[in-house]
Structures
1.
Amino acid sequence: MFVALYFFSFFIILTIKNKDKLFDYPKPRKDFFISVLTPAYNEEDTIRDTIEHIMELEYPKNKIELIVLNDCSTDNTSKIIKELMKKYKNLKLIENKTNLGKAKSLNIGIKKARGELIAVVDSDSFPSKNSLQKLTGFFSDPKMGAVTSFVRVRNKEKNRLAKIQSIEYLIMGWSRKLLDFIDSVYVTNGPLSVYRKSYVNKVGGFDPTTVTEDIDITWNMMYHGYKTGMCLGADVSTVAPSSYKQWFKQRMRWGMGGLQAISKYRKIFFKKGMFGAFVLPFVSFSIVMSLLTFMFSIYLVLKFFATRLLTAGYSLSTDSAIFSLQDINLYPSVIIFFFVVLFTLSTAYAWYVLNKTEYEQNINTKKFFNILFYTVLYLSIYPVVWFASIYKFARNDLRW
């Protein structure tokens, strides 16, 4: 509880201190030539919309190219791309002869790319028109290696699960921006991130052995001393899983990728600047505390029911009262007190973030507490994903 309150207070302090700079971004000093890479595998439902969004970006047309990396799709993905190539002269297609996976496909695209900067856009993601322009200004800093965007859920009205994820994405994006103020952005997301090509090559490109290439490339950049950043004003929407099976598979992949990254860079704990001193401990402690809190909660619930069951059995056998007013404890424990404090702070923080990020035009009290109720349930069961990820990681089973 102390660790949770400590880190939560830390984020609140960062919010207060930087509240006037959260949506700021540096103005670009020049128009970089940018190669946008979009890996695709059986994306016929979204690839057309993704390509059109990229082509409609507010960026000089002679300074941008789009390379779609078709990884042996078996649907109409290739056909749709070839149709669009007739319309867009700066659209290129690379067809892999065998299925290589996302990381290897990106590395092939980087070799063919002409841009000084590389933008990666998932084939089910849709950048806002001014997003790329806002991201490029960060690269006026010669040490900047990668900058990521603010992700919103495109299909949030699909069902309850999608709506909960839309809130989760907003809070994750907000928190990531806060970490930007202390040089600790540790994920450059797949929906839209921009990288300096020369630095990507220097760190060896995207690692095909990891299941989350976006986490690994970010940590690799930080390990080599390059900066990472985040722009809260650069919006991109993406399609979130709308079924629990899809959601579980996605989150288990994220979990295994995080564990891979921690294992890979474990030797620099509390070393090598903010990466070793803060990012590695923060991510690791977050996982550990999530698991411990879940197990402790299960223990308390089981203890409560076991105690009541034994007490009821004893009362029935002795013909005494099962419940009496003396059993009521009007003095809450320290744990309960801290829980109330944490819950109150979390509620106020979530309300603030949802309003600042314009989650909806009108968030009334009833709607907010409905959102909060389902979100609390969602977060309560999330550690199950971590247990599954740890189990598969321990068995070296990286399938998802």
2.
Amino acid sequence: MLKKKKILFAVLNWGLGHATRSWELIHKLTEEGNEVVLASDGVAKNFLEKEFPNLKVHNIPSYNIRYGIRNTVFTMLKNGVKTQIAVKKEKKWLKEFLKQNKVDQIISDNRYGFYNSSINSVIITHQLNIKAPFGSRLINAQNHKWLNRFHEIWVPDMNGELSGDLSNPIPEKLLSKVKQIGLLSRFKKNKSTICHDFLLAVVSGPEPQKSILAEKLIKILSKTKSVSILYLGSPEINKQEKIGNLIIKSHASTVEFGKDLARAKVVIGRSGYSSIMDYKTLDKKMILIPTPGQSEQEYLGKYLESHSEVKLITQKELSITSLKSALCDKI
């Protein structure tokens, strides 16, 4: 019989993506009888508190990454500095936490500061090779240095099938630590589910681009003849309204969102990796809108479009006309 462990599970607050993809692992760990303590901040923390009301959720330092209306080299450098500061704060928080609490394992979803040399420390990431408009060698040198401090690196993919160059090839210095664990999703495909003739749109990721996309989609979808549902990805509020044929939901339980997602004919949303894993698991037709200035999402969108799995629209090009054209290609 396996020994039950006390596990500290830290989740990055980058919208809801890291929290939703960690959902499956957290459930599995608790079902196995382990004591799981969660740590996050912002909307990710709000999500975890609602999904796991019986688990303690600690508030930890935020990365405060933002993508503005105009993303420049300065924006990228600023976000890089914020990440460096956040990692130092994480390490300080963890040091104080471990003085008061004994844990058997640390699992971190993309939080680089959550490791300890004397405790089995695991990081979950699909970005072994970060895409950047410039300075890729320097950025990846820092990325690999951080990753190499962990005892294990769990990649939610197999042979780069979904993540492409982001996780494949595996850097030689990390090869012995990498474990490919397959796609993570809180949803499972049900063959008996019948798709309905409605669109499902989901906004996610950091502000202010999250709200900018939400405003554009509300204007577009409220004027179309098709029935549609828009999720705002805001678990901190409880709101639902209807504008024309558009239903706007601030958030919903995993069960409710899963039903809407499974029944939707087409899904419209960001090309964030966690979202794509959910859509791929449920075999959904996708129209993806990368977050402007976020190189990873821009790469993933183009990579999947080149494999004829999705239709890509830039946020700048998003309009009733471009959406209708994309829908004609996907339906």
3.
Amino acid sequence: MFSRHIHAQLLDSIEAAPAVALLGPRQVGKTTLALEVAKTRPSVYLDLQSERDRAKLDQAELYLQDHLGQLVILDEVHRAPGLFPVLRGLIDQARREGKRSGQYLLLGSASLDLLKQSGETLAGRITFLELGPLSILEVGAPSADDLWVRGGFPDSLQAPSAARSLKWRQDFIRTYLERDVPLFGPRIATQSLRLLWTMLAHQQGGMVNTTQLARNLGVDVKTVNSYIHLLTDLLLLRRLPPWHANAGKRLVKTPKLYVRDSGLVHALLDLATKESVLSHPVIGASWEGFCLENILACAPAQVQGYFYRSSGGAEVDLLLQWPGGDLWAIEIKRSLSPKVERGFHAACTDLNPTRKMVVYPGNEHYPLGHDVQAMPLMQLCEQLVAQSSARQ
């Protein structure tokens, strides 16, 4: 079992709030982590995919009242949105009796946008945390290439062969297309959604032209946008917003789109091994998305991620905005001898960041000139986690 760096934060949140929602894609390790938490205190676990466990909640208020002294873990909670008003009433009852935390741990496979009812019903009573695929800090630097190629879903990463890993990811994609996507949204043609997902993998990290995508799929732009929003809400796509605070420049306003797990990028493109990835045009964009997801997973929750691009060619792959306004400018290069391009220097002149760095796949940290540092991904992630701990 992998040690997840969110574990301590989850325990702290349970001690501080009546309800905690742990959100993340299916098979990412939410249940495993929740059951580890359950070992630390009196708990009861219900899987809402199970008919037997759902039957226990036919009279939900009566059942949950019997467990007011325990941490109730509700897995796949998005399958029972009608529970949220009941939870609100029980949380308020427990507050009147002096118990203000540690009552409910809700596990779900969708973002807050798809759990709007919980956000509205449990406002002021719930904390949201996101568990993504495994990060480089959780698997270690020696496994970084496997993590990049196979992705961060534990079963894919630990598969006994590259072929078995690819098969697991392809089955995962099929399950989402045939079962999970219809659960959350209107009925969508499976083949159309798969084709869209594959097109987005080919355009990893690009500013997607939805009009062209709609034309290729034979649907309207509104439908394409709804597909993209749904995959984003299911925590499978990331929309990286453009930086927009520099009013004196003409800036790109379209977000970049990334398939969040690099292993899913490779599965959608039928790339089973590192050699097949290295020979494919997606290599640079795949590595960029892999680094970006690791960096954002390790950064403190208050840090916001953006990219920067002006009409004059100034560009930064990833901007981290810290509370208080400090900026870190990060360029991502798949090269052991990275070079900083003119567009990055121009962007830094526009933005005046407090730190400038190039993330690359090497092992040494060294200066590149002009206050730019070459930085291994592992080292940057360690620094971000240390910053997060220092701010707690």
